[in-house]
Amino acid sequence: MKRVLLIIGGGIAAYKTLELIRILRKRDLEVRCILTRAGKEFVTPLSVASLTSDKVYEDLFSLTDEAEMGHIELSREADLLVVAPATADLLAKMANGAANDLASTALLATDKPILAAPAMNVRMWLHAATQRNLSRLKADGVSFVGPGDGEMACGEYGPGRMAEPTEIADAIASMLGGTTVQKPLAGRRVIVTSGPTVEPIDPVRFLSNRSSGKQGHAIAAAAAAAGADVVLVSGPVSIPDPAGVRTLHVETAVQMLAAVEAALPSDIAVFSAAVADWRVEPAWQKIKKGKSGAPALALIENPDILASISRHPRRPRLVIGFAAETEEMLAHARQKLERKGCDMIVANDVGGEAGVMGGERNTVHLVTRDGVEDWPTLDKTEVAHRLVERLAALLGAPA
Ligand code: C5P
Fold first, then answer.
1. Is the per-residue pLDDT at 327 higher than 80?
2. Cα–Cα 20 to 30 A to 31, which of 139, 168, 299, 372?
3. Which residue's CA is the nearest one to ligand 1's atom 4?
4. Is 342 labeled as catalytic in the residue annotation?
5. Residue of 306, 328, 357 to test ligand 1 pocket, by largest number of atoms within 8 Å of CB
6. Is the pLDDT score of 177 beyond 80?
7. Which atom of ligand 1 is nearest to the CA of 324?
């Protein structure tokens, strides 16, 4: 069993590390924790100890701890050190080799790989000092996961939000070589579409939509973490390609269909892209404003990728569609399941206040021929994980 030494720093995101511990234990990893003095202001030693089934280490000069398990021993017996949340202060200490408490001393005393999940206020993150520390730590070989963009506890918006527990757990799995982690999709091929498509009107204008690609990219990353060989076909998005995934970049629906067909055969296909329903015959030159009024756009229907692949001679065993609806969500999802011939529709409400498009969280309902399953509102990474777990179970053990 592999061992993780988790150092919990003092940030509001510390509460998320409790969930991280739970996930790591579920994945059969042993977790031992150091809680910094500031970390203790956010989570209690008792809750950490209950989740790790181990004592929590807090004090550098504890006579009993040193006798049982010295600070050098703590980092020596771990396979990986994880700092979450990695506060600005902890990063500064690490970058400078400070060793004035148990956490910083363990980090300096180790020759094991270190993964840090930074979490702090946007301005602190963007500050030249933090960025300087970050570059130095990267040069020293420290790995990072996150931070993501999002709304912060301090009311500001921007980078600095700690990565979600599932993302951190995946980064840990890949750093540990994945040997201890269950790989329910090992040997399987998965195709995922993500993002919007962009349909040109003329050389400078286009038709598109507000899809961010976050949900599709998270599904591709989760499938890769589950051991699958993943091809992600993505329209233009501003988020990075997920690690460990072959990403093909396309613009139009026609290109997306061609890329998906070229990626067949596959065991599973998840169509989470927001494909533009229509395109136009693009003009070669920029359309000029004329005296005769606004030009008419003749819309041409795009190919339906989900429906084509569901009826394809080389149809994947599981074909999953998404339904972004603003009204009568479930009725529409059921009709879509039949019309498109897929095995499952993941329905979500993208109407006005839900803020799904571009947001971090999603409320989905799994619609199959057997019925509907409502899921609670979850982070998109967590939706991705649960969905991948479900798809692996539906597919059964590899042949
Ligand atoms: O019909 P609607 O666009 O609501 O269907 C949504 C589902 O169909 C999504 O899974 C989407 O990726 C897929 N789709 C597609 N090709 C299209 C339109 C939608 O694959 N042209």
1. no
2. 139
3. 323
4. no
5. 306
6. no
7. 4
pTM, full prediction: 0.66
Q: Which of 126, 129, 153, 154 is catalytic?
A: 154
The CATH number covering residue 322 comes to 3.40.50.10300
Ligand 1 geometric centre to CA of 388 (Å): 20
Given ligand 1 and candidates 322, 339, 387, which is best to mutate, with the most ligand atoms within 8 Å of its CB? 322
Ligand 1 atom nearest 193 alpha carbon = 12
At 180 the pLDDT is: 45
237-246: which pairs have CB atoms within 8 A and are 24 or more residues apart?
237/194, 237/195, 237/196, 237/211, 237/212, 237/213, 238/212, 239/212, 239/213, 239/214, 241/217, 242/217, 242/218, 243/174, 244/174, 245/220, 245/221
Give domain status of residue 184, yes or no.
no
How far is residue 184's CA from residue 90's CA, in Å, rounded to a whole number? Answer: 36
Cα–Cα distance between 367 and 334 in angstroms, integer? Answer: 7
pLDDT in tens, 38-97: 999 999 999 999 899 888 998 776 756 665 666 778 888 899 999 999 999 999 999 999
Kindly state whether residues 170 and 194 are assigned to the same domain.
no
Integer-rounded Cα Rg, in Å, for the chain is 24
Nearest CA to ligand 1 atom 2: 323
CB-ligand 1 contact for 275 (6 Å cutoff):
yes
| 340 Cα–ligand 1 center, Å | 9
**Mean pLDDT of all residues belonging to the chain:** 90
Cα–Cα nearest to 213, from 76, 322, 74: 322
Q: How many folded domains does the chain comprise? A: 2
In the chain, what percentage of residues exceed pLDDT 70? 93
Q: How far is the CA of 276 from the centre of ligand 1 (A)?
A: 8
Do both 58 and 117 map to the same domain? Answer: yes
CA dist., res. 150 & res. 148, Å (int): 6
